[in-house]
Design goal:
Strand order of the largest sheet: 1-3-2-4-5-6-7
Structural class: alpha/beta
Strand content: 5-15%
Number of helices: 9
Helix content: 40-55%
Shape: globular
Distance between the termini: 29 Å
Order of helices and strands: EEHEHEHEHHHHHEEH
Length: 265
């Protein structure tokens, strides 16, 4: 089989059936990821995680879903479960529904702190990204960028425009610091490209109404449960911080139990 471009293999397990994980995973992020969770799961599971297209700007929800769903269908493999993290749960629900329509048994659908992207959430991610540059930017520069980010929301006509403004602020603030410190601007360009791709991913997710799919899911919640978790058919609460939910052994045990049922049902 040709190596899928829309998926990254996190574990080549013993089973032919797939476990699909939907997330915008980036190197160096502070939040846990499926790369943390998968080593804690049963080694038999074959786990694929979504990749983000290199040129994601302007992609619609259908563009993302077609990329991911078509490659899974082309593999000819049954999907045991679909997992979604945060905003990835929006895509994961629609992906699970499409897969259920083409195979004999619907995959299990598990979502972790599910969240519909919002301007407040986008700002939170922007502020966290600015904090990651504290070694290059002064505390005053970080604070100024974050104040600009708050102010920009009032003047942005929609989510995508607000994302563009946050990208602009990041480029200006980080660009000045990179120039001052004589750092490699190619690295800055990479960070800007990743953040712009992230904005596109979130904006596309907002085109999907996840309500019906989320009502079929099991929601695994941290200490800060999201509103989306309240829609789930079943809930599992684990006393961990949101940032650590995919690093938790208790979460892994719950997932093993939920998706392991598929093989024996």
């Amino acid at each position: 089989m040709t190596k899928p471009s829309g998926w990254k293999v996190l574990n080549a397990g013993r089973e032919a059936g797939l476990v699909l994980a939907v997330d915008f995973a980036t190197t160096g992020r502070s939040d846990s990821s499926f790369s943390d969770l998968v080593p804690l799961l049963s080694p038999e599971f074959t786990v694929w995680e979504t990749r983000q297209p290199h040129t994601a700007a302007g992609m619609s929800a259908e563009d993302y879903l077609a990329l991911w769903a078509d490659e899974v269908a082309g593999s000819g493999r049954t999907v045991r479960a679909v997992l979604g993290y945060c905003a990835g749960s929006v895509f994961a629900g629609e992906l699970a529904a499409r897969i259920a329509a083409r195979q004999a048994e619907a995959p299990r659908f598990v979502m972790f702190d599910p969240e519909v992207p919002s301007p407040a959430g986008l700002y939170r991610d922007f502020a966290a990204m600015m904090n990651q540059f504290a070694s290059v930017l002064s505390p005053e520069e970080v604070a100024a960028a974050q104040r600009e980010g708050v102010a920009a929301q009032a003047g942005a006509p929609d989510f995508a425009a607000y994302g563009d403004e946050l990208v602009r602020i990041f480029m200006e603030r980080a660009g000045a610091a990179f120039a001052r410190e004589e750092l490699d601007t190619e690295l800055l360009d990479e960070f800007v490209a990743v953040f712009r791709s992230f904005v596109s991913y979130l904006n596309a997710a907002r085109q999907i109404d996840p309500t019906a799919a989320w009502r079929t899911a099991t929601a695994v919640s941290s200490r800060e449960p999201t509103e989306g978790a309240a829609l789930a058919e079943r809930s599992v609460e684990v006393p961990v911080d949101h940032a650590d939910i995919l690093r938790s052994k208790r979460v892994a045990e719950a997932v093993n139990e939920i998706i392991g049922v598929y093989a024996s049902s």
